Amino acid sequence: MTSVQPAQPGGDPLAGGVRGGGDPFVGSGPLSRRHPLRPASDRYPRGTTVLEAAVDKTGRCLSALGRPPAEARALAALITDVWGVWADAPVATPAWRCYAAADGSPFELSASWTGNDVELRVTGEALADPPGPAANQELAWAHLRGIAGRPGVDLGQVLALEDLFRSDEPREHYWMMHGVAVRPGADPLFKVYLDPHVGGSEHAGDVIDEAMARLGMGAAWRRTLDHTGAFGGPGRIGSLALDLTDPERARAKIYLQYPDHDARAIDSQAAIAAGHVPGAFAAALRTITGHSAPPFGKPPVTCFAFRKGRSVPAAATLYVPMIPEFPDDESARDRTAAFLSREGIDPGPYAAFLESLADLPLAETRNQNFIAYHPAPPGTTPRFSCYVAPGLYA
Questions:
Q1: Residue ranges of region Disordered (predicted)?
Q2: Residues near 119 by Cβ (< 8 Å), separated by ≥ 6?
Q3: Interval 46-70: pLDDT, tens
């Protein structure tokens, strides 16, 4: 039914995999002699585990965001409790290039702002010991079941899709990611990011079609496909994300990559979503990256969010690639900060968040993967997010 093209590996908005040339596959999977992972700095002594590095990074960014130390301790306790065996892996000797972050690390951090409200998210990738496609797949689904019973968690929807996102022979670069978002005064929101290419990219479109039908969102998805067909076609499938909460409120998100669309086509496709501001996506791409047409170093992405009972997407969010559009995080920060100021948003918290995660001067790092932007009609507040690799590897 769908005409969506399968994504190229490493193109998911929560992933690495720079697509600007060279080897077509450096985004995830087994390490090779040609593309090893090397420590990016000497901050972490040999023997430091992934969990210890994650606790350090989350504590630093929460402090930079002005959060009390108790929040950092609570988040550290949470990821210590829920992360799997991959948390004990030593940072110094990685065995797998992960999809979760632009530097190949097994976790990524992101922050999302709406006015003065900020949400911090940590997304980890399940890795077996030793890692491999089949072993990672088994561990990922076992980990998912392990969070059942936590406050607010509902696994019914995702477990109903398990057969679609499993394979007897998962592709070499298979991934599955588990996220948790923390907000003041609310239970943590758990999320899962699923790979529709698990059994081969040629099946990804059918997997998404069937998943959306099972979720009760098939009609809205079909309507979205029909709309995008008038503006160059819907691009390539990246991933499907689900909120692990009450199915009546949970969002299903489909990420579409646009390697061949210009800014105007991307903006026009997003017009199907409720609340979209015409022209806002095109302006953001042009202002941040400096150009409006391909080739982009890595494809821009639109995330369409769906909810039960809606006939169209509940929202559309633009993901603007920072790598390899900019040579370093300093120049990416400056362009992004200028854009935020133009939108009436104080760029200070964003800049502090980015700086807090860096172990080297920003002129020497390339860890900021995407800026996500959800424009808002006049009189309301736009939402934006920053996705940053922890910078463990160069």
A1: 1-45
A2: 111, 112, 181, 182, 183
A3: 999 999 999 999 999 999 999 999 9
The residue whose two tokens read 């301790």 is 73
Give the rounded distance of the alpha carbon of 35 from its chain centre. 22
Phi, psi of 362 (to 5 degrees): -60, -25
Residue with tokens 């199915």: 247
Tokens of 309: 């009972």
Q: Please write the tens of the pLDDT for every residue from 275-324.
A: 999 999 999 999 999 999 999 889 999 999 999 999 999 999 999 999 99
Say whether pTM exceeds 0.85: yes
Summarize pLDDT for 235-256 with one digit per residue, the tens.
899 999 999 999 999 999 999 9
